[in-house]
Design goal:
Layout: E1 8-14, E2 17-26, H1 31-42, E3 48-59, H2 61-77, E4 80-84, H3 88-96, H4 112-127
Parallel strand pairs: 2-3, 3-4
Antiparallel strand pairs: 1-2
Length: 128
C-alpha cells in the first residue's frame, strides 16, 4: 500500500488577507476539513481569502464541490476567493470539468454547483 499524504491546511492572516496553504489530498473525506478551515474567515470581514494549491497532490469531485461552494459563499459574503499555485494536473482537472473560472475569479455558471452536488451524492451512494 502506497503512502498517502494527509490533508493539511495552514492559515495566516495579514492586513485583511488570509492565505490558506493546502497540502495532501482533497477528497470526499477531507473536503469538510477545508470547509471548517474556511469558516472562521468567511464572516469575519477579511477582504480576500487566498487558497494556495501548490502542495495539493489530489482533488476529486468532492474537492471541486468544496471549491465551488467556497466561491459561492465568498460572493455572498462580499470577499474575494483566489486560488493560486495549481499544478498542471490540477489545472487540467479544472479545464476538463469546465471549472477553470475558479482559477481566475469569474462568476460561477448557474447550475454548476447543483450539478457537482448531485454528482457527489450519486457517487456517495454508489461507494457507500
Amino acid at each position: 500500500m502506497a503512502f498517502q499524504p494527509p490533508f493539511g491546511a495552514r492559515s495566516k492572516e495579514k492586513d485583511g488577507v488570509v492565505t490558506i496553504a493546502l497540502s495532501g489530498e482533497l477528497d470526499m473525506a477531507t473536503a469538510p476539513i477545508l470547509t471548517d478551515n474556511l469558516a472562521p474567515f468567511e464572516g469575519n470581514g477579511v477582504s480576500t481569502i487566498v487558497l494556495d494549491l501548490q502542495d495539493l497532490t489530489f482533488i476529486d469531485s468532492s474537492g471541486l464541490l468544496a471549491f465551488l461552494e467556497a466561491r459561492r459563499r465568498a460572493m455572498s459574503n462580499g470577499h474575494r476567493l483566489v486560488m493560486s499555485g495549481a499544478s498542471s494536473a490540477a489545472q487540467r482537472l479544472f479545464e476538463l470539468t469546465e471549472t477553470q473560472f475558479l482559477l481566475d475569479e469569474q462568476v460561477i455558471p448557474d447550475g454548476l454547483v447543483r450539478f457537482f452536488r448531485d454528482w457527489v451524492r450519486r457517487t456517495d451512494r454508489t461507494i457507500g
